[in-house]
Amino acid sequence: MASNQLTIGSRGSKLALFQANWVKAQLEAAHAGLQVVIEIIKTSGDVFLDAPLSQIGGKGLFTKEIEDALLDDRIDLAVHSLKDLPTVLPAGLSLAAVSCREDARDAFVSNEHSSLGALPKGARVGTSSLRRQSQLLRLRSDLEVANLRGNLDTRIRKLDEEQYDAILLACAGLDRLGYQHRIAERLSVQQLCPAVGQGALGIETRETDQETRGQLQCLHHPPTHSAVIAERAFLRRLGGGCQVPIAGHAWIEESRLEMLGVVASTDGQKLFRDQASAPIEQAAELGTQLAERLLASGAREILKALTAP
Question: Whole-prediction pTM value?
Answer without folding.
Answer: 0.91
